[in-house]
């Protein structure tokens, strides 16, 4: 059952009207969303977290190059959360959105029959790895609408934030704001703290789905009947029983048969990724792309360049820059920064006993853009003019009236926590310990429905 909404007493705050509006729009049942399959996403995440817990003694953590690199850094669970965000978004991208048109037809030399791909990028997911980028296939990009992407990413982030915050010594309740155009995306609260969250998240990678055709497809041309040319966009009758999620750089296929699943592909995906072997294969493949993308595009070696072809917004064109993951877009950094200022100016009341704080929530921080666009702002503080008192040539301000520009940036890979009130509420290492100790089993059971 979702938490009952019990907001802290904000009746004495000058901003109580703004907070009352949030209370009216808050929904603690994170699975309740008319635009996406929230219940399916919760089941998938629960299965994946259990698979992670079951895999912790698997020798592959020490034998696999990328799993070992993550483990050695001590940030393997941080990156696992980011990888799970991508997986949850990926599965929702195809839930109820597959159409019969504009599949990429690929009949590579040496293959017995063609394969068709439903892609989220403008390229063949396999051929780009060995022949490079061809002319972009403009009609091959099957992204959901911006509205749906916002619902998908906010819900996925909210669920993962809830898991991490549930592991805290003094956990916060969490709710999404049901009006997408509202200033606030997610609220977290307990009796002595109110936290407003601006979600700036987007997946690093969205893997294609595909299936093998039984035979070559032909079309009538002026000079006779001919097989469709390589990488034509064709219409097909989708074979859901043979449909697979493809990790192109590993040539690994996770078959996701529909069967009687009304919410395909969530049940199939939950079953697939409940197996630790599959989850580790996915995570290792995701890490390989993450490490390639983490290198600035001007410094990547040839292999890193090729791997980055599979990443959303790898940086070759303006339109691909628009899909950079997390806070990878400078526009998102700017918009997110303004929202934090607005939270402090319009929702907080410096003279009240109840603190109101704002934070950014994102799957990935700016990565290679961090030094140029974020680091020098990370500890900036600000205050309102009436709070400053002139003392000769100097100005004084009470500490309670001085706010961090970024109270916190809850990024899975590299969180920044400046405000002391927020220390401990987003402790990813503590969340991993709680998961492995079974302390989050109740939450995961509720996600299983």
Structure in words:
The protein has 449 residues and is α+β, with helices and mostly antiparallel strands. It folds into 2 domains: 16-32 and 170-204 and 328-447; 38-146 and 206-321, no CATH class. The protein has helices at residues 16-25, 38-55, 60-63, 65-73, 76-94, 128-131, 146-166, 266-273, 276-293, 302-308, 318-321, 330-346, 370-373, 428-436, 441-447, and strands spanning 26-27, 103-106, 115-118, 173-177, 186-190, 193-199, 209-212, 218-221, 224-227, 233-234, 244-247, 252-255, 356-362, 381-382, 388-391, 394-397, 403-404, 408-411, 416-417. A 7-stranded mixed sheet has the order 1-4-5-6-13-18-19, sandwiched between helices. Strands 10-2-3-7-11-12 form a 6-stranded antiparallel sheet, covered by helices on one side. A two-stranded antiparallel sheet has the order 8-9. It is elongated, with a radius of gyration of 23 Å. The model has no long low-confidence stretch (mean pLDDT 93).
């Amino acid at each position: 059952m979702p938490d009952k909404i019990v907001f802290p007493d904000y009746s004495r705050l000058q901003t109580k009207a703004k907070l009352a509006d949030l209370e009216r729009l808050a929904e603690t049942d994170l699975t309740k969303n008319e635009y996406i399959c929230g219940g399916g996403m919760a089941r998938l995440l629960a299965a994946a977290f259990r698979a992670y817990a079951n895999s912790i003694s698997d020798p592959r953590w020490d034998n696999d190059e990328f799993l070992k690199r993550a483990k050695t850094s001590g940030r393997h669970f941080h990156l696992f959360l980011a990888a799970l965000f991508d997986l949850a978004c990926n599965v929702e991208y195809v839930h109820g959105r597959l159409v019969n048109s504009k599949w990429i037809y690929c009949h590579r030399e040496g293959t017995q029959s063609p394969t068709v791909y439903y892609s989220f990028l403008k390229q063949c997911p396999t051929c780009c790895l060995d022949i490079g980028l061809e002319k972009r296939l403009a009609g091959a990009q099957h992204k959901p609408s911006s509205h749906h992407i916002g619902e998908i990413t906010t819900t996925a982030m909210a669920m993962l934030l809830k898991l991490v915050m549930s592991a805290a010594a003094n956990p916060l309740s969490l709710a999404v704001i049901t009006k997408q155009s509202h200033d606030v995306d997610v609220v977290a609260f307990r009796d002595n703290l109110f936290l407003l969250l601006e979600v700036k998240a987007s997946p690093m990678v969205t893997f294609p789905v595909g299936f093998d055709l039984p035979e070559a497809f032909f079309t009538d041309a002026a000079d006779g009947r001919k097989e469709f040319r390589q990488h034509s966009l064709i219409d097909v009758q989708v074979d859901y029983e043979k449909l697979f999620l493809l990790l192109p750089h590993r040539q690994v296929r996770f078959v996701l048969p529909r069967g009687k699943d009304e919410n395909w592909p969530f049940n199939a995906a939950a079953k697939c990724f409940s197996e630790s072997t599959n989850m580790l294969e996915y995570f290792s493949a995701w890490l390989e792309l993450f490490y390639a993308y983490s290198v600035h595009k001007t410094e990547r070696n040839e292999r890193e360049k090729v791997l980055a072809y599979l990443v959303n917004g790898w940086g070759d064109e303006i339109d691909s820059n628009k899909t950079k993951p997390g806070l990878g877009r400078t526009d998102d950094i700017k918009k997110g920064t303004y929202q934090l200022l607005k939270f402090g100016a319009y929702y907080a009341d410096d003279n009240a006993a109840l603190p109101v704080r704002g934070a950014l929530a994102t799957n990935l921080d700016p990565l290679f853009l961090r030094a140029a666009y974020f680091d020098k702002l990370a500890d900036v503080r600000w205050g309102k003019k009436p709070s400053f008192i002139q003392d000769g040539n100097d100005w004084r301000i009470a500490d309670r009236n001085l706010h961090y520009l970024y109270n916190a940036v809850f990024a899975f890979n590299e969180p920044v926590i400046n405000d002391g009130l927020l220390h401990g509420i987003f402790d990813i290492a503590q969340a991993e310990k709680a998961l492995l100790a079974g302390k989050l089993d109740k939450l995961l059971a509720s996600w299983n429905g």
